[in-house]
């Protein structure tokens, strides 16, 4: 219907009522006339705001209080129910009023509060004064709202009002059904659950005070969160964000950073970049290494996307990413662990509202490039680092690793090449430990141990992850065997004339044929000050073999062979030298 026809129809419908309205005293509900009731609202402020809007199109709009604490909005009055019904039909067909509006006789209308001039006049003529009794009567108690009153008020809400109740119940986490305005078993059970949790009788029907508490509480929380639809056109993402808790900070592709507002502790990343499945998997690995993604929590990944949940005692984070048509888009929400109940509702709103926009991703040149690259940052985000990283060597086909024991007992988690592991046993005297992977791990090669002890001055090599942050492969350093005892004459120790770094600790010492003649120990304690920079201490194979065998990790013996070239020793060491890490 065109705007002109709609205006003409509205004028015609209103004409039915204006002469009758003018003849009535202001403030009279006129119970013997008819009205078109269009809405019932739970608070006076809401009703007055709605009526101010209605009055621009309907000068005959009126407002009355209803039983149960509700506020009714009506049009009229009309001389007869038939005239009111015809007006209802025309206005409803034209889409001028809600579809669930109905004809009311005004018998349930109480005090009139709209128009404002009507509210200033008495609702009814003052009764004749009664003779004063000898004693003043006791004041009448306020009317008690019955369950029947609450049900009638619920019906008067209309479909839209009941949908608002369902939305509020969904927001507080007690309702998961459809928002359709139909109060079935699910809605009733949800109302009862909310009532019970707030100290009300769990009847499944909201009385007016309960309804006000529910709706006002939800409104206040939503206002504090500031959930607002955001269209991030540069990233091609539409999403509802809690702008009461976060604010835009900067671009650092593939992320759009939203920092915490005030002291909320909440952060949001919008993720947007072009790519394929390999890019997606790389992003998954990168996100899993960030400080904002704690290691504990469910996670999943497939060819079309991934989900990462990280939880510890301080923070929680949720990352949702999808790959479609060569574009990778998603988001991360980070928040304090103590705020989890409230943020669950924010997360639900973000998930429901998230949508890709357009066919482009974030421009990789956006934002300010860093003057100096840092290995501990990914697009401006801190990467999670282990407490320490060192070396080890595979000693059996099941992935058991021999390494140095120092500091391992204090680790919250130990990994072998990133895979979770446990300490099978440690020998404090020798200073060694054996780690076992929690899941099956097939090593590329298994170390073999010398069967004939090398002599002083023999050539040797040390393999280890000397630079764990910079290199993902072991470094092989060459030197000689200085002595077959420690500085204090310990027979199980050996001194090596080779320079090593902390990352080499736990790594294998190899003889000229590539057989293991010892394991590097840390340069700790009082002896560290006595060692020259080019000297390293190791525990000898002759001491290692019986201890390992007694614990069920019998080493493989080296086969007789001649001296290998340096490059052959390096290639051999690459197969069985591994990096282990200690995490909080």
Task: Give a description of the structure.
This protein is of the alpha+beta class and 584 residues long. It has four domains: 3-120, Alpha-Beta Plaits (2-Layer Sandwich), CATH 3.30.70; 147-225, no CATH class; 227-378, Mog1/PsbP, alpha/beta/alpha sandwich (Protein Transport Mog1p, Chain A, 3-Layer(aba) Sandwich), CATH 3.40.1000; 386-584, Thrombin, subunit H. Helix content is 26%, strand content 30%. The chain is built from twelve helices and 31 strands. The strands form seven sheets. It has a seven-stranded antiparallel β-sheet, sandwiched between helices. Strand 27 and strand 28 (516-520) form a beta hairpin. It is elongated, with a radius of gyration of 39 Å. The two termini are 68 Å apart. Mean pLDDT is 83; it is low at 1-31, 123-128 and 368-377.
Overall domain count: 4
Helix content percent band: 25-40%
User: What class, by secondary structure content?
Assistant: alpha+beta
Name the average pLDDT.
83
Large-scale geometry: elongated
Could you please say which CATH topology of the largest domain applies here?
Answer: Thrombin, subunit H
Architecture of the largest domain in CATH? Beta Barrel
Q: In percent, how much strand structure appears in the residues?
A: 25-35%
Biggest sheet architecture: 7 strands, antiparallel
Q: How many E strands? A: 31
Cα gyration radius (Å): 39 Å
Strand order of the largest sheet: 8-9-10-14-13-12-11
The parts where pLDDT drops under 50 for at least 5 residues are 1-31, 123-128, 368-377
**Class of the largest domain in CATH?**
Mainly Beta
End-to-end separation in angstroms reads 68 Å
**Number of separate helices:** 12
């Amino acid at each position: 219907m065109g705007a002109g026809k709609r205006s003409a129809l509205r004028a015609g419908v209103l004409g039915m009522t204006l002469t009758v309205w003018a003849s009535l005293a202001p403030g009279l509900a006129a119970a013997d006339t008819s009205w078109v009731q269009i809405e019932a609202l739970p608070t006076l402020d809401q009703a007055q705001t709605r009526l101010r809007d209605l009055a621009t199109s309907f000068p005959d709009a009126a407002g009355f209080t209803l039983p149960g604490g509700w506020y009714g909005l009506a049009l009229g009055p009309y001389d007869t129910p038939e005239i009111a019904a015809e007006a209802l039909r025309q206005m409803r067909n034209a889409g001028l009023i809600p579809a669930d509006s109905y004809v009311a006789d005004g018998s349930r209308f109480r005090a009139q509060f709209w128009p404002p001039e009507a509210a200033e006049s008495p609702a009814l003529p003052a009764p004749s004064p009664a003779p004063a009794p000898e004693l003043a009567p006791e004041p009448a108690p306020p009317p008690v709202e019955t369950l029947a009153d609450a049900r009638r008020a619920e019906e008067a809400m209309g479909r839209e009002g009941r949908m608002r109740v369902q939305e509020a119940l969904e927001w507080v986490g007690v309702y998961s059904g459809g928002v359709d305005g139909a109060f079935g078993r699910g809605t009733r059970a949800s109302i009862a659950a909310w009532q019970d949790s707030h100290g009300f009788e769990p009847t499944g029907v909201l009385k007016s005070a309960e309804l006000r508490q529910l709706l006002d509480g939800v409104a206040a929380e939503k206002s504090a969160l500031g959930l607002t639809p955001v269209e991030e056109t540069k990233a091609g993402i539409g999403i509802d964000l809690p702008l009461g808790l976060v604010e835009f900070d900067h671009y650092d592709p593939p992320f759009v950073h939203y920092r915490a507002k005030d002291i909320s502790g909440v952060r949001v990343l919008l993720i947007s970049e072009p790519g394929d499945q390999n890019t997606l998997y790389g992003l998954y690995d990168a996100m899993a290494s960030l400080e904002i993604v704690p290691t504990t929590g469910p996670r999943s990944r497939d060819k079309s996307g991934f989900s990462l949940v990280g939880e510890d005692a301080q923070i929680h984070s949720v990352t949702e990413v999808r790959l479609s048509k060569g574009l990778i888009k998603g988001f991360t929400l980070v928040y304090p662990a103590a705020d989890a109940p409230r943020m669950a509702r924010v997360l639900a709103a973000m998930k429901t509202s998230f949508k890709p926009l357009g066919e482009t991703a974030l421009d990789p040149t956006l934002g300010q490039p860093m003057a100096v690259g840092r290995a501990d940052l990914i697009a401006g985000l801190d990467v999670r680092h282990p407490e320490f990283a060192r070396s080890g060597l595979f000693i059996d086909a099941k992935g058991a690793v021999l390494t140095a024991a120092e500091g391992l007992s204090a680790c919250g988690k130990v990994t072998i090449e990133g895979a979770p592991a446990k300490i099978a046993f440690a020998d404090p005297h020798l200073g060694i430990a054996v780690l076992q992977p929690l899941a099956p791990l097939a090593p590329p090669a298994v170390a073999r141990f010398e069967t004939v002890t090398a002599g002083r001055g023999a050539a040797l090599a040390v393999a280890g992850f000397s630079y764990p942050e910079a290199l993902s492969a072991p470094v092989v350093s060459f030197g000689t065997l200085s002595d077959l005892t420690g500085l204090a004459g310990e027979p199980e120790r050996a001194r090596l004339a080779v320079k090593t770094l902390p990352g080499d600790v736990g790594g294998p010492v190899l003889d000229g044929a590539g057989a293991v003649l010892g394991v590097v120990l840390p340069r700790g304690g009082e002896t560290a000050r006595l060692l020259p920079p080019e000297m390293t201490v190791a525990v000898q194979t002759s001491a290692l073999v019986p201890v390992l065998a007694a614990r069920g990790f019998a080493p493989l013996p080296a086969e007789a062979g001649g001296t290998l070239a340096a490059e052959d020793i390096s290639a051999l060491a690459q197969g069985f030298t591994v990096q282990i890490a200690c995490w909080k």
